[in-house]
Amino acid sequence: MFVATSTSAVFIAAAYLTLLIPETAATAPTIISRAQWGARAPKHQAANLARKPAPYVVLHHSTGNGCVTQAICQLKVREFQNYHMNSKKWSDVGYNFIVGEDGNIYEGRGWGKQGAHSKPFNNKSIGICIIGDYTNRTPNSAAVQAVDSLIAYGVSSGEIKNDYKLLGHRQTWQTNCPGNSLYTMMQSWPHWAAAA
Ligand SMILES: *[C@@H]1O[C@H](CO)[C@@H](O)[C@H](O)[C@H]1NC(C)=O
Ligand SMILES: [Zn+2]
Asked: Domain count of the chain?
């Protein structure tokens, strides 16, 4: 009797999980770690986000050339980090994540950390930069899918609010970032918000 009950309980639990999993868990995307892309150590540890899960995602472009291979994208990510640390005098690369048209996601400051990418929003947003200049063209589908899977995973793992707002950098600061073409494109994405 005891065995029969626990067996059916296991079946019910398994059936329940089968129903639940596709709803709640986005597959973890592969993220190229700082060690993998050859990051320098930050000058000091980034502060935690003041609001977690983050209520905003802010999208950026980098200007300059895009990249379609991991070797070149990694080189660019290292260049951004050097520029941010040496010229801007920031403690680390400013973005939480960087995405390439190679379809890879590169770890910047990562989840739950305050970046240096969108001044008034740094303490309540995840900042994602797509490598390239999207003034006159949109990023390829590999990059768009990488951003989409990164955000979906952030939501499912409690790093980004379910009802987050997606903003372009130009909505938070006087800038052309993320470029006219990408800004137009992102306005059709599900969580884009006209106003913060
Ligand atoms: C977050 O940053 C804004 C703007 O920089 C600042 O006014 C605010 O006090 C910060 N919030 C917290 C909780 O640190
Ligand atoms: Zn920007």
From this structure: 1
Ligand lying closest to the C-alpha of residue 80? 2
Ligand nearest to the CA of 59: 2
Alpha carbon distance 158, 146 (integer Å): 18
User: Please, what are the averages of pLDDT over each run of 10 residues along the chain (196 residues)?
Assistant: 47 47 70 98 97 97 97 98 98 98 98 96 98 98 98 97 98 97 97 95
Please compute Rg for the chain using Cα positions: 19
- Of all atoms in ligand 1, which is nearest to the CA of residue 50? 13
CATH number of the domain residue 121 falls in: 3.40.80.10
pTM of the predicted model, to two decimals?
0.88
